[in-house]
Design goal:
9 strands, Rossmann fold, 50% helix, two-stranded parallel ribbon, globular, alpha/beta, binds NADP nicotinamide-adenine-dinucleotide phosphate, 232 residues
């Protein structure tokens, strides 16, 4: 039986990945940060789906010990902060400390745990080796370490992810709405491939694609946004 550890389980994509995995009969361990103010609510929500909530602290030793004990077949890294969160959380939350740092703790633990889990990394459209954008640069670094990890893996590079968020993200809303509008026009003019690459996707749609690729044992590779859209 497949056993999945899902980090970032409370996110827009993560909560849907937990749901879809449970629908597919997977034993799911949904990670919620131990200091989450919503821990009880997540326990109820994930418990109702038949998923276990895991609150292992974000430290190398603890995460390695937890994954070693669990021996997962799949590990999902679906974490990320935003510039706004970094400014308002009261912690030093940055792309470096969260998007890279926590994902890297998880990757090291997955490598060390011994069960050779498939590592599913939620990266982003636009990642390149030469990017100067800090959000994209940390994703390129993690993708590079993933390729060298010796684990089976894939990295998904979606465009905008949309859905009902617990917090307001006006830039994301405007970006996806304007983008989708322009792309509809581009599609009418015949550039369908471009429209499919950049169009936004809901967390639920993306989760379907991630779980399908993960359980179908897709070959190790980067999966672009148009392919993720086609797989929903
Ligand atoms: N949103 C987009 O348009 C988009 C597009 C392409 C790629 N991506 C990338 O895809 C990934 C997931 O996106 P999403 O929109 O589903 O994410 P999301 O809804 O913002 O969820 C982020 C997840 O990361 C966790 N997290 C954030 N800061 C943390 C911290 N300091 N300690 C522990 N956990 C922390 C959150 O936990 P809490 O709930 O406890 O805060 C949550 O589970 C991110 O890496 C994102 O950058 C996003």
């Amino acid at each position: 039986m497949s056993k999945a550890f899902v980090a970032g389980a409370t996110g827009l994509t993560g909560r849907e990945v937990v749901r879809v995995l449970r629908e597919r009969g997977v034993d799911v361990h949904a990670h919620v940060r131990p200091d989450s103010r919503e821990l009880d609510a997540w326990r109820r929500r994930f418990g109702a789906l038949g998923a276990e909530v895991d609150t292992t602290p974000w430290m190398d030793d603890a995460m390695r010990a937890r994954l070693t004990a669990l021996a997962p077949t799949h590990v999902f890294a679906l974490l990320g902060t935003t510039k706004k969160r970094g400014r308002t959380s009261g912690h030093a939350d940055t792309y470096e400390s969260v998007d890279y740092g926590l994902s890297a703790i998880l990757l090291r633990a997955a490598i060390a745990c011994g069960s050779r889990p498939r590592f599913v990394y939620l990266s982003s459209m636009g990642v390149t080796a030469t990017t100067k954008n800090p959000y994209l640069a940390v994703r390129h670094r993690l993708e590079t370490e993933l390729r060298a990890s010796g684990l089976p893996w894939f990295a998904a590079r979606p465009s905008f992810i949309v859905g009902e968020r617990d917090e307001d993200r006006p830039l994301e809303k405007v970006g996806s709405a304007v983008g989708d509008g322009l792309l509809a026009l581009v599609g009418l003019l015949g550039a369908k491939r471009m429209r499919e690459s950049y169009r936004s996707q809901t967390g639920a749609e993306l989760a379907q694609a991630l779980v399908r690729l993960a359980l179908d044992e897709a070959p190790d590779r980067v999966v672009p946004s148009d392919e993720l859209r086609a797989l929903r």
